[in-house]
Design goal:
The chain is built from seven helices and twelve strands. Residues 22-27 and 224-257 have low confidence and may be disordered. It has 257 residues and is an alpha/beta fold. The strands form three sheets. An eight-stranded mixed β-sheet has the order 6-4-7-8-3-9-10-11, sandwiched between helices. Strands 1-2 form a two-stranded antiparallel sheet. Strands 5-12 form a two-stranded antiparallel sheet. β7 (129-134), α6 (142-154) and β8 form a beta-alpha-beta unit. The longest helix is centred in the middle third of the chain and has 13 residues, at 113-125. The termini are far apart. Helix content is 23%, strand content 23%.
Length: 257
């Protein structure tokens, strides 16, 4: 085999980190669905084979709306999305604009902590899952999260977990940590044309680059287009898909038990 020059090696393996390039261009990423957010993220989008941690002061400020466009794009590759221990029961009409997520989601609610940890690791290790969303309990420590991070990296799975903002100063093995804040609460009355303002702070990114200055992002409040209707040619599950209405709040995305 012909010897390669250093330049040829770097060209062939673009994932090699170089000190002169603090923002490496990695191929393992997907667009977030928000152009302004992609400009701020070191990879130009969400990583597809790492562990991502989202920290919020309260549930339902727009964290899922931030993720759904990118996840919907990821599932185009005939992969599945696993939801493990979501805080509320999923409500299908809120996902109707995200065809891939609606048809390729698996919802898992283990009865015990041991079963929950097992399910998370199995899904992250499965070649069938493109992404895994999970809400760990307070008992889940660094060592266990490290196992999840290794499983995600080895199997090219995007693992996303949600924790309270009080964990912000705690060490985490997550590849990327992002805190979210909003001026409006999850139950604020907002019409379909209102945009929710989020303040995002990239606390950590293991690619040698950190966006230290918080930045603002506007996300639409509505879940469905006002004129959107179910396609009569597509089969619907009457147990999950109920009367569609717009806009959708977070509490309508996840129906309480």
């Amino acid at each position: 085999m012909k010897d390669l020059t250093l330049t040829q090696i770097l060209h062939r393996y673009p994932n090699i980190w170089r000190a002169s390039n603090p923002k490496p261009k990695l191929s393992a990423n997907i667009p977030s669905g928000y152009a302004e957010l992609d400009k701020q993220l070191p990879l130009g989008g969400w990583p597809t084979n790492q562990l991502l941690e989202l920290l919020t002061q309260e549930t339902g400020i727009g964290e899922l709306k931030l993720l759904l466009p990118g996840l919907n794009h990821l599932l185009e590759e005939n992969l599945w999305l696993a939801w493990i221990n979501p805080p509320y029961r999923p409500y299908a009409p809120a996902l109707i604009n995200y065809d891939n997520i609606l048809s390729k989601s698996i919802f898992i609610t283990p009865k015990t902590e041991k079963d929950s940890l097992w399910a998370i690791e199995q899904c992250l290790s499965s070649i069938a899952c493109g992404a895994v969303l999970f809400w760990p309990s307070k008992q889940v420590g660094y060592a266990r999260l490290r196992r999840f991070a290794l499983a995600a990296k080895q199997n090219h799975t995007l693992g996303i977990f949600f924790r309270d903002a009080t964990w912000q100063n705690t060490s985490s093995p997550a590849h990327m940590r992002l805190s979210l804040q909003t001026l409006t609460g999850p139950n604020t009355n907002m019409n379909a044309n209102t945009k929710r303002q989020l303040t995002l702070n990239l606390l950590k990114c293991s690619d040698g680059y950190i966006q230290r200055k918080p930045f603002n992002l506007s996300i639409p409040n509505q879940w469905l287009k006002p004129s959107h209707h179910l396609n009569p040619k597509q089969p619907s599950d009457s147990k999950n898909i109920q009367n569609s209405r717009s806009p959708f709040s977070f509490k309508q995305l996840f129906k309480e038990e």
